[in-house]
């Protein structure tokens, strides 16, 4: 009579373990529950030439699906187009911004208009507010905790603090961008890879069990370290 009891106990333990795993997976996915307003159609074109319903959806892609650089930025606030539709619909700018190309624009509108008109391969993004100062920065950020996550995986108390750091410490770039509002996720490297053995050789001469393990290494290294790319599919 003991054997059936032991068998039932093992089955019950497996059920509990599976339930726990599902719960853990749900917790891991909780960071992707951004809660964007689906009724808001403030269309934006991302730096990947993809149209998003609003900025929230673009930030959600950064947070949930992009573990490492390059992160998305807003190219211009409307539907993406491949035609060079130049239009001068921006009012006289009173709030200048410094672009990632170290050019001062009268306003964010003028920067976005240039992206729309020229359709550059790498759209210009806002490096910081104010004129390009090249190290001579005068930022007065209010102490309001409205955190944003930077592309360096560092949480800033506000977008103003991020822009201020760009101006002071990175006068010539490359600049940190806002990848999503809120604090940075604390486990960016928590990537679960299968044990399937489909070896690939990285350009760092290391054999990875499969593509997922290579991607995981890139995610954990962060944007400041050169990403490993696949040299060929086989052991090195």
From TrEMBL:
Any one Gene Ontology molecular-function term assigned to this protein's record: serine-type endopeptidase inhibitor activity
Pfam families membership: Kazal_1, Kazal_2
Higher taxonomy: Eukaryota, Metazoa, Spiralia, Lophotrochozoa, Mollusca
Entries under PANTHER family matching the protein: FOLLISTATIN, ISOFORM A-RELATED, FOLLISTATIN-RELATED
The entry's keywords: Disulfide bond, Protease inhibitor, Serine protease inhibitor, Signal
Protein name per its UniProtKB record: Kazal-like domain-containing protein
GO term, biological process aspect, one: cell differentiation
Species of provenance: Biomphalaria glabrata (Bloodfluke planorb)
All copies of domain Kazal-like, residue ranges: 26-80, 81-134, 136-172, 178-236
InterPro entries: Kazal_dom, Kazal_dom_sf, Prot_Inhib_GrowthFact_Antg
CDD domains: KAZAL_FS
Cellular-component GO terms for this entry: extracellular region
Organism superkingdom: Eukaryota
Stretch forming the signal peptide: 1-23
